[in-house]
Specification:
Blueprint (H helix, E strand, L loop, with lengths): L3 E2 L6 E2 L18 H11 L5 H13 L5 H11 L4 H13 L5 H7 L6 H15 L8 H4 L1
Antiparallel strand pairs: 1-2
The structure holds zinc ion.
């Protein structure tokens, strides 16, 4: 099950909803492409919660365009562990030829928590365990 958010106010909305029940934004007129772009832009949103949500949705929707940006975040962000954790989880879900390399590289991240998480994640991927179930920790 994929969670959808209103791109304007970030209310959780039903997939079939035509308008956001909170702010009335027309979800119908909003194309997939615009939605993806909005999510990509939100990755450097000043509100940490929105960055997290954006990373999570990009992973769930398997948006490959997010991979270079997620890679940048891992290279530059050192403080926000929960965000980096969500970024790593998102990477694990996206089908991209570079993803293992990027997660592998995160094992050398300056934050011990992040490097440990990258290690655990790689083991999970190698065991082909279901990464979906990890969402309850990242949400
Ligand atoms: Zn809304």
């Amino acid at each position: 099950m994929i969670t959808y958010y209103c791109p304007k106010c970030w209310q959780i909305v039903d997939e079939k909803e035509k308008n956001c029940p909170r702010c009335g934004f027309s979800l119908d007129e909003f194309s997939n492409q615009e939605y993806e772009q909005k999510l990509l832009d939100a990755l450097d949103h000043t509100i940490p919660e929105r960055r997290m949500i954006a990373a999570q949705i990009l992973g769930n929707l398997n948006i490959q365009e997010a991979v270079p940006i997620l890679k940048e975040i891992l290279a530059n962000e050192t403080e926000d562990y929960y965000f980096l954790r969500t970024v790593l989880l998102a990477l694990a879900k996206i089908d991209h030829p570079e993803k293992l390399e990027i997660i592998e590289h995160a094992k050398c991240h300056p934050s011990t928590l992040v490097s440990q998480f990258a290690q655990e994640l790689l083991e999970k991927i190698e065991d082909q365990k279901n990464i979906e179930t990890w969402d309850r920790f990242s949400g």
